[in-house]
């Protein structure tokens, strides 16, 4: 399962059925679980743990030190879950001690070529990142998010569950759950209705989310008044709980 030209540190911990391609390098503190395939010319360094059944294509760099001048060699971590596809030329960095020391990617993510995930980012489950997506440090991507190609996400931004961003978007503020944004500068463009249908939201739930979008973006209400209006609708419409909690916790303000 290990190509003869691959270099595996003797202290690295690889499950018996892990495959490692030609000329790949696996560092001392790396752990890789069962069923994962590492292609040729991949470098995996640092305190990096990779779960089960991942497919890591050629020319990736995972677990390299952060692009942060404050980093001084601390034993920070990168953790990647199960069933992820990581295409060519991606770069995922370790965390920093200024923010918990961890960069994490969850399960069942589809990460296309040339994606950069910087230090202290946290990516959820079932996300799609198209070619050339760049996440600056401390970014949070919630479950089921789709990020369009060549999109840049500013540090400390959060993108909420089921949201979608368009091609070449510049994301400098938080993107609420369920919504679609695009552009440079970025603007809101309705809800991710097709994505919600595919994930089992029924027509009534989608109508409620669309009405919530109009409350925030089309009603003329202040942000605080829009939050109050949505809060009042929670009991009959529990699908709004995710949105209300997101708005209450936003640190950078939302795309609006």
Question: Can you summarize this structure?
Answer:
The protein has 256 residues and is α/β, with parallel strands linked by helices.
Structure notes:
By secondary structure, the protein is of the alpha/beta class. The protein folds into 2 domains: 7-141, Hexapeptide repeat proteins (UDP N-Acetylglucosamine Acyltransferase, domain 1), CATH 2.160.10; 196-249, Udp N-acetylglucosamine O-acyltransferase, Domain 2 (Up-down Bundle), CATH 1.20.1180. It contains 4 helices and 27 strands. It has a 10-stranded mixed β-sheet. A hairpin with a 2-residue loop joins strand 26 and strand 27. It starts with 6 loop residues before the first strand and ends in a 7-residue tail after the last helix. The mean pLDDT is 98.
What are the salient characteristics of this protein?
2 domains; elongated; 256 residues; UDP N-Acetylglucosamine Acyltransferase, domain 1; Udp N-acetylglucosamine O-acyltransferase, Domain 2
Secondary structure layout:
Layout: E1 7-8, E2 13-14, E3 19-20, E4 25-26, E5 31-32, E6 37-38, E7 43-44, E8 47-50, E9 55-56, E10 61-64, E11 77-80, E12 85-86, E13 91-93, E14 102-105, E15 110-111, E16 116-117, E17 122-123, E18 128-129, E19 134-135, E20 140-141, E21 146-147, E22 152-153, E23 158-159, E24 164-165, E25 170-171, E26 179-183, E27 186-191, H1 193-198, H2 203-217, H3 223-231, H4 241-249
């Amino acid at each position: 399962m290990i190509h003869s030209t691959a270099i595996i540190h003797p202290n690295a911990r690889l499950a018996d059925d892990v495959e490692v391609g030609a000329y790949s390098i696996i560092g001392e503190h790396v752990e890789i679980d069962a069923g994962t395939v590492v292609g040729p010319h991949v470098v995996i360094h640092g305190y990096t743990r990779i779960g089960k059944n991942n497919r890591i294509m050629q020319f990736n760099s995972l677990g390299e030190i952060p692009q942060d001048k404050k980093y001084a060699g601390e034993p920070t971590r990168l953790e990647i879950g199960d069933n992820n596809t990581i295409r060519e030329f991606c770069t995922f960095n370790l965390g920093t001690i200024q923010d918990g020391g961890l960069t994490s990617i969850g399960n069942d993510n589809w990460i296309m070529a040339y994606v950069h995930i910087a230090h202290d980012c946290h990516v959820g489950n079932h996300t799609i990142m198209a070619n050339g997506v760049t996440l600056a440090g401390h970014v949070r991507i919630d479950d089921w998010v789709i990020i369009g190609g060549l999109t840049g996400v500013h540090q400390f931004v959060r993108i909420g569950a089921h949201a979608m961003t368009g091609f070449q978007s510049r994301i400098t503020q938080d993107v609420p759950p369920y919504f679609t944004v695009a552009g440079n500068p970025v603007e809101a463009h309705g809800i991710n209705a097709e994505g919600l249908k595919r994930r089992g939201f029924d027509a009534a739930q989608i109508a409620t989310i669309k009405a919530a979008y109009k409350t925030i973006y089309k009603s003329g209400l202040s942000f605080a008044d829009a939050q109050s209006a949505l809060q009042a609708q929670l009991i009959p419409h529990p699908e709004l709980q995710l949105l209300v909690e997101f708005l209450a916790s936003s640190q950078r303000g939302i795309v609006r």
